[in-house]
Amino acid sequence: NAGLPGATKNDVFTPSGAGANPFITPLITSAYSKYPHMFTSQHQKASFNIYAEKIIMTEVVPLFNECAMPTPQQFQQILENIANKYIQNTP
Q1: SS3 breakdown of the chain: % helix, strand, coil, rounded to 5?
Q2: Could you tell me which residue ranges the Guanine nucleotide exchange factor SopE GEF domain spans (predicted)?
Q3: Does pTM top 0.90 for this prediction?
Q4: Phi-psi category of residue 61: left, alpha or beta, with phi > 0 → left and psi -120 to 50 → alpha
Q5: pLDDT tens, position by position, for the chain (91 residues)?
Q6: d(CA 9, CA 28)
Q7: Where do the domains of the chain lie?
Q8: Can you identify the CATH homologous superfamily of domain 22-88?
Q9: End-to-end CA distance of the chain
């Protein structure tokens, strides 16, 4: 587990917050806390999540490009390719 917080289930360790977008989650959490009356339905929450992700990624992707780093989407694809390589080679 490399010292990370998380849980092991069926002999698979999953770090806490796995799958959470570190750029979007803080904004969404803050909005839900400050304006709970605006997010009373799941549809409102889902719409806001999509909107927030679009706006934030529009802002952060150019920063990754400036630093010659893969974007979060590209990095996710790299990890999926690595995982698929090892899954395919598993007997």
Answers
A1: 60, 10, 30
A2: 1-89
A3: no
A4: alpha
A5: 455 567 777 777 666 665 667 778 788 888 889 999 988 888 988 898 889 889 988 998 899 989 999 988 888 888 888 888 877 776 6
A6: 28
A7: 22-88
A8: SopE-like, GEF domain (1.10.4120.10)
A9: 24
